[in-house]
Specification:
Length: 314
């Protein structure tokens, strides 16, 4: 499956809910989201059918996202359904980690290949300030539970926020010293609730290289530039949508929990998929992928997307 610029589209981020047990300051407002009726959100069967159709169109990797996907009832059933799809090479899931102490082993048994865990700080007070309600210990216990369950090559996602967590760059990177994980620093984007934040909050991931001049380049992994401290077990990644636009390498599409396909995170373009099945669903996915915008315009203005991040899927 290719878009009009020739990019191969083989990666689907499938949001299973817009709900979350946290209220991260860059993701949603302090009151969270209005809970929708079950009729407004894709059922587990509909999510599985979209996954099946996407794989038929050439998608090789599916990441389950939210909100927080582990608050979605039936998430393990969905994982099993998707893992059974012939042609799906990798099934991954992004989580804040709070439920992993109870669910990591079950996710592994259900066929999830790898986890991404969101962790923006190792300071308890900063963690509560960013998440508005989270417990740092739960997320750290979740990381340990993932390792105990047999998950490897886990990725930790850290959103860089100037004046909030940039003083912890080295402390966070230390997580990769003895662990086979990749800690990826992600540049904050002017999207949703943080679109009008002060400019000093949006810092370049060059701050990581300045804080850790001993980092050595290790190539790339998707849109992440990889580095490693010599002798350390894991890697440090930089994801730089603001300072180093990587749109020419973007291979992903997103489906929201209410069934709308977004060819680009930062476009207001959304294609409804709900109610479609079989060949009609596959055609809609192919057509939507074909019109994926060539690039975002974050250098000139805030994101054109009308949704907060929890509504789109991380």
């Amino acid at each position: 499956m290719y878009d009009l610029t020739g990019r191969k589209i083989d990666y689907l981020r499938l949001s299973v809910t817009d709900l979350c047990n946290y209220r991260c300051i860059y993701c949603m407002g302090p009151d969270g989201v209005c809970k929708r009726s079950h009729r407004e959100i894709l059922s587990i069967e509909e999510l599985a059918e979209i996954g099946r159709a996407a794989v038929e169109c050439g998608v090789e990797k599916i990441r389950l996202t939210g909100g927080e996907p582990l608050v979605r009832r039936g998430i393990l059933d969905l994982c099993r359904m998707l893992r059974d799809l012939e042609g799906l090479e990798e099934l991954t899931l992004t989580t804040n980690g709070a439920a992993l102490p109870q669910m990591a082993a079950s996710l592994k048994a259900a066929g999830v290949d790898r986890l991404n865990i969101s962790l923006d700080t190792l300071n308890e007070d900063t963690f509560r300030a960013i998440t508005r309600r989270g417990d740092l210990r739960q997320t750290l216990d979740g990381l340990a539970a993932a390792e105990a369950a047999g998950f490897t090559h886990t990725k930790i996602n850290t959103v860089l926020i100037g004046g909030v967590n940039d003083i912890e760059i080295r402390t966070l990177a230390e997580l990769t010293r003895d662990r086979d994980i990749s800690l990826r620093f992600i540049e904050l984007m002017p999207l949703g609730v943080c679109a009008d934040w002060p400019r000093e909050r949006f810092i370049s991931a060059d701050a990581v290289l300045k804080a850790m001049p001993e980092l050595e380049p290790m190539g790339t992994d998707g849109v992440a530039e990889l580095y490693r401290v010599p002798g350390w077990a894991g890697t440090v990644g930089l994801i730089r949508p603001m300072s180093h636009c990587f749109c020419e390498r973007c291979n992903r599409i997103r489906v929201t929990a209410d069934g709308r396909l977004k060819p680009c995170l930062h476009s207001d373009m959304e294609i409804p998929l709900r109610g479609l099945s079989g060949g009609a669903l596959e055609r809609a996915i192919r057509e939507a992928a074909s019109i994926k915008p060539e690039s975002h315009h974050l250098g000139q203005r805030s994101s054109d997307s009308r949704r907060n991040m929890n509504e789109i899927g991380g």
